[in-house]
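Subject: Sanity check before I submit

Could someone independently write out the structure tokens for this chain? I want to compare against mine line by line before I put it in a report. The sequence has 234 residues.
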Amino acid sequence: MSTSPSSGTLLPPAIRFAKILGTLGAGALAGTYLTHSSHTLPALEASKRATTPATTGGANISQQQPASQAVKIFHRIHRASHTLLLNLILVSAGSYSYIAYYIYNYPLDVGEISSASATYSSSSFMPQTEVHRGGGGGDFLGFAGTWMFFALPATILLGIIPYSKVVMKAVNHRLNAAGESLEQEEKRGIGLQVVDEQATWRDLELWRKKNCWRAGMAGLAGAIAGVGVTKLGY
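---
Independent answer below. Compare away.
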């Protein structure tokens, strides 16, 4: 009788846990970003069509001004989810980096073993084991090259941070500053709240489009890592 374990059984439990953690984190990131762009922001923009506030000059003034309500809701959502999403990025990228590091630095443990078998006989209590080694550790398309399928997703996920800090910095600042200002006015009991209607809706739409790229980056990272998980074995 013989058995041939999959490549996944040759990996330590920490690597298996990192695969699960990284994949779940990347999926949660992609889902959250996509939800914000495809559902949350469109729902806020729907209030623009539902109510027509009074208009004075270049600014729209109303206690129930749709833009004022929308930007306050946006600010609260951003404040509640910002730290959580940043931690998800770091945890997922760290998990993928650990997997890539292990496979790259220990190719003899996983990369060069193409199959293993154990044969049992009635004349001996000890099994006879045999390990079959395939190509060298530098085979990119082989098992040893699987580290690239985790190093690249880790890089992409970490890239979301500078993208958010650089590409989305201006629009994030304008929307959150407006939301913070309106919240302070609300706490002081100021009933009349003023924002630039057209500029606010324009910034919300711009943020929605730029946020779609973050969803795409997280989704791409998860898809690439999924290929690596398949190569490692479940």
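---
OP: Matches mine. For the report I'm noting this point. The radius of gyration is 26 Å.
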